[in-house]
Amino acid sequence: MKVSIVIPSHNRYEQLKNTIEALRKQSHDNYEVMIVDDASDDRTSTIDLPNHFRMVRNNKKMGLAETRNIGIANTDGDLIIFLDAEMLVYPDYIENHVKRHEKCENLVLTGAMYYYYITQRAQKKIVDQNINFLSEEFQNLIRFKDYYYSNIIVPYGDELDKFLIPWVACMGGNLSVKRTLLDQAGRFDPKFIGYGWEDWELGYRLHQCGATFKVDRAVGTIHQEHEVNKKRLQESLLNYRYFMDKHPSIEVYAMSLELISEQVTIRDINQLLHKYDQLYNKDLRLAFYEIIKYNARYVTTEFQKPFISKNTINLNHLPEGILKEVYIMLLNKHV
């Protein structure tokens, strides 16, 4: 099985060099790497590439969705792996992706929920002391972020059993899907501009096409920390609003709960969806829509999360039923 690795990159020169180095020696040899430089103004174009690595450059910044689509169009592998420019991989990374897909026809696979990372301070130490990526000393510098592990993998397992929104496992930073399935669902929607939601929206469409979503530690990566886009919250809210308008379903609406408070988790959302058999209850749809409308007010003002409290919501004025229960859950979760 030929594998095409698509790497979008914008001003990730230092991290991308390390990612390329990690990809040079893989146990699976039938692969190509396509790097799409999204109009970087750093030294990305000067990176020395091996023979089976290629780079194309966007003349202007296109964003993650369209940049990944350009990578897809410039490759011909049967299996496509989407990998962010700052991800370090192990020598059996591609091989493990291939093995899983050989056993499951309509698989969408990620290792991103096993979120390992190294800090910028640790990266400097690695460069200064020339520490080998596979050495024990390097492994001791790796840190683990617990969010997805605790809220998805622990309760539902790698198979995502009884998880009603498995498409959130479509995480573009470390994701594999067969080209045939991708062609069936359609590629990334270029109307997603800036940060966030373009990969989950693709996952939603893949789910509608009958895809099976799985998580696997064997295809895990190590994220190299970098500077964060200061407009990411603003861009994320705009993209989520577009996602909601494009797919007005209970599952998509329910994701707005996570925007209210960091205390509301994906696990809470899944439990709420399990609780109600009537997923298209008008009252629940109204609740989620009002939440995101409230949230979107901040896109053009202060760029902050809305605050739900007993002072802003008068429970006595709410009708009995699902709408009231949703707000009660939010109040109980908010600290």
Could you characterize the architecture of this molecule?
By secondary structure, the protein is an alpha/beta fold. The protein folds into 2 domains: 3-228, Spore Coat Polysaccharide Biosynthesis Protein SpsA, Chain A (Alpha-Beta Complex); 248-333, no CATH class. The chain is built from 14 helices and 11 strands. The protein has a 7-stranded mixed β-sheet with strand order 3-2-1-4-9-6-10, sandwiched between helices. A 4-stranded mixed β-sheet has the order 5-11-7-8. Strand 1 (3-9), helix 1 (13-24) and strand 2 (31-37) form a beta-alpha-beta unit. Helix 7 (179-185) packs across helix 8 (198-208) and helix 13 (282-296) packs across helix 14 (322-333). The longest helix has 15 residues, at 232-246. The N and C termini lie far apart (50 Å).
